[in-house]
Design a protein that fits this description.
This protein is an alpha+beta fold. The protein has two domains: 174 residues, Aminopeptidase (3-Layer(aba) Sandwich), CATH 3.40.630; 162 residues, Aminopeptidase. The chain is built from eleven helices and 13 strands. Strands 1, 2, 3, 4, 5, 6, 7, 8, 9, 10, 11, 12 and 13 form a 13-stranded mixed β-sheet that branches. The longest helix has 15 residues. The chain starts with a strand and ends with a helix. About 3% of the residues have low confidence.
Amino acid sequence: MKAKRISKLTQKEKHDIEQLIDLCTFSTPFLHPDWLLIVEDLFNENMYYAFHYDECETMEFALPFILKKSYRYWDMHSFSMAYELNYGGPLCNSYDVFARLAHDMLMLDGLERVKSLSIYLPPTFDCSAFGENRCIHIYNTPIIDLTPDLDSLWNTFPYKNVRCNINKARKHNIHVVVDEKQHLRQFHEYHAALLNSFNKPILPLQYYESVAQLPYVHIFSALYDKYPIAVGIILTHHNTVYYWNNASASEYRTYRPNDLLVWEIMKWAKEHNFHVFDFLIVPLDELPGLSRFKLKFRPKLYPIYEYRAKNKYQIMSKGLYYLSRPYEIISKLCSTFIKSS
């Protein structure tokens, strides 16, 4: 199995990865090389793709990851929530391929001293074959089935907290427009104000502007008197619409533009033959208000698992290294004791 920086992939390798993304039933839009290249360029991250070709020179497995330095070793992380890359996971035609090649992910050509691997698996990934020790339940993601007709979907929402809010937004003559990319500046301003209230950093506007140029990304804006008071960003992939991000002006939130925005996105999704609406994960302890907002639409919760693996040979070699250098152990223990005291 090989590993390459995203920027070093050949055109054929990118094409083969994209083909695998199309074929893989549990793939997500966060796996596209063009998105990961944006992260690599803007943030100077170690973005890689590991991949494997079978005997017929067909790519049967691929895995994107961020390489993080861990003292003398490297850890492989299947993305980072710091860049709002919610789902990671492997690309393959079957679970048998993943099970067969799982160990090889830690023994990559071109990379040495890889110690561990962690992957945030998508909600449709079946973890039953990999055991409880490897797959740890870490989050839930709320998902709505869009296959019912609009009236049935509307009636599943609670009257007081959702339907009344949507009607209130309409009474204030708020309406929604699509793909007005100039509204990303207002989105960034509103999003920064929200994150600042939780003492969290904001990604640069350039990141959202670059991602918005990708063909599977769409902007929805709720306008009041021709001004965007709420802006949402969605992703489309296979039969699913992903509610990636949303932000609104605090002074207009009583008009309930966010509720109307979600409803109009769902209507648009049905018109374009999408069958699933994925709200994406938000840890309850980080942004509780956003979590409550998503849950009030009465979605079904799906578990998100983290797949973990360790390279036992690297762990053994690290232990042997310290045993051969006891002075380093003593030095580390003394340093830890001084810091704690």
